[in-house]
Amino acid sequence: MQHESAPKSGAVEVVNWMLSRGRHDTHMRKFGDQMCRRIVAAGIPLWRASCSVATLHPQVVTSAYTWRREDAGGAVRRAAPHAFTESPEWTRSPVAELKRTGRRIRRKICDPGCPLDYPIVEELRAAGGTDYVVMPMICSSGEINTISWATDRPGGFSEAELADLTAIADALAIIVELQSTRRVARYLLDTYVGHRTGEKVWSGAITRGSQETIHAVIWYCDLRGFTTLTDSLAKERVIALLNEYFEIVVDAVAAEGGEALKFIGDAMLAIFELENQREVAARCRAALRAAALVRAKIQERNLARRDLGEPEIRFGLALRLGEVSYGNIGATNRLDFTVVGPAVNHASRLEKLAGELGREVVTSASFALASGAEMEHLGRHHLRGVREE
C-alpha cells in the first residue's frame, strides 16, 4: 500500500534532492530557496512558503524562514525572542494553533466561504493568494515545527499537489531536526563554555587530560561585598544584580577579543589569548580597554541603580600575564574545559589584594611592563600561598 504522503510526479525529484545533496547545505536560507524553486520547477504552483523552527537558545525561541517566489534574494530569516510567544502576532497565528493541536490547517482563500480567522489569511488574500496550508513537521522528540505553503493560482492547490507538499514536509522534518540539533549544540556550547572553547570541544577535544599550553592575559574579577548583599537582599534582587554585572563584564571582554571561560559564584575568569609573542602589548592593552569600559559602564549603571534605591555594583579586577594549561580537567563523566596554572592562581590572589589596597583594577608587574601603559606602582606584596613577592 502506498503511504498517503508518498510523492508523485516531479515531487519525487525534489525529495530525492533534499535527502541526498540538499541536506549537506547547512545554510537553511540557501537550502530553503533551492527547495522552493525546485518545487516550482516540479509543476507545483508555489507562491510563498514559511518554515518555523523551535530552538533552544537563551535569547531566541524560534527561527522562521520565509520564501517568496518573486524575491530573487532567496529566503529571509527572522529570529523571534522568547517574549514573542506572548504577543498577539503569535497567539492569533495558525502556527501557534497547529503547535497546540498537531493538525494541518488549510484555508482555501479563493472559496467564497473561506473563514478569515487568522491575520495571515487576510494578508494573503489582499496580496492575491488563493490557497494557504500549514503542515506539522514532527520531530522524533514529539516537538512540532511547521511549514506553510501558499499559492496564487486560480483554484488553489489540487489534492495531488497537497499530497506532494505533505511528502516534501515529511522529508523536510528530518532535515530540519538534524540541522536544528546541530545548531542548538553549537548555541549551547557558545553560551555555556564560550565560542573558542566550544569550537575546541566541537572539534573533538573531549578527553580528560587533553590540553595545550598557551600564553594569555588572565582576567579575574569579582563583586565587592557580595556576601553582605546575599544576606540583606531578596534572592531575585541578587540574581538581577549579578546578571547586570556579568552582562557588562562579558560584553566588554568579548568586544576586545577576549573570552569569558567561567563564572565562579560572583567571580569571572576570562582570557585574552596570545597567538604569538608579538601580540603581547596589543593583548594587554585590549584587556585594559575592556577594564576601562567595565568601569565606565558600571559607573553609568550605578547612577540608575541609585535612583531606583538599589545597591551599587562594586567590583575588583586583576590582570596577569602568563603561561597556562588550557584543556579538560575533572571526573571521567563530568569535565570542565578551562585554564589552570600558577598564573591563574596569582590572578585570583591579586584580585583579593586589589580590595585590600582599595583599588578596582590591579595588574601584575609582568603585565604592566609588557603593556607599555602608564601605571601607578603599588609596591611589592606577598600573595597568599605564593613564595615570591
Mean pLDDT: 88
Following the backbone from N to C, one meets helices and strands in this order, namely: HHEEEHHEHEEHHEHHEEHEEHEH
- Globular, elongated, flat, extended or rod-shaped: what is the shape? elongated
Q: Quaternary state, please?
A: single chain
CATH architecture call of the largest domain: 2-Layer Sandwich
Helix content: 40-55%
Question: What is the first-to-last residue Cα distance?
Answer: 83 Å
* CATH homologous superfamily label of the largest domain: GAF domain
Whole-angstrom Rg: 28 Å
Q: Could you characterize what this model shows?
A:
By secondary structure, the chain is of the alpha+beta class. The chain folds into two domains: 11-192, 2-Layer Sandwich (Beta-Lactamase), CATH 3.30.450.40; 204-371, Alpha-Beta Plaits (2-Layer Sandwich), CATH 3.30.70.1230. The chain is 42% helix and 24% strand. The protein has helices at 11-19, 28-41, 88-91, 94-101, 119-127, 159-193, 195-202, 226-232, 235-255, 280-307, 342-356, 365-371, and strands at 48-54, 60-68, 76-81, 105-107, 131-138, 144-151, 211-223, 259-264, 267-274, 315-331, 334-340, 361-363. The strands form two sheets. It has a six-stranded antiparallel beta sheet, sandwiched between helices. Strands 7, 8, 9, 10, 11 and 12 form a six-stranded mixed beta sheet that branches. A hairpin with a 2-residue loop joins strand 8 (259-264) and strand 9 (267-274). The mean pLDDT is 88.
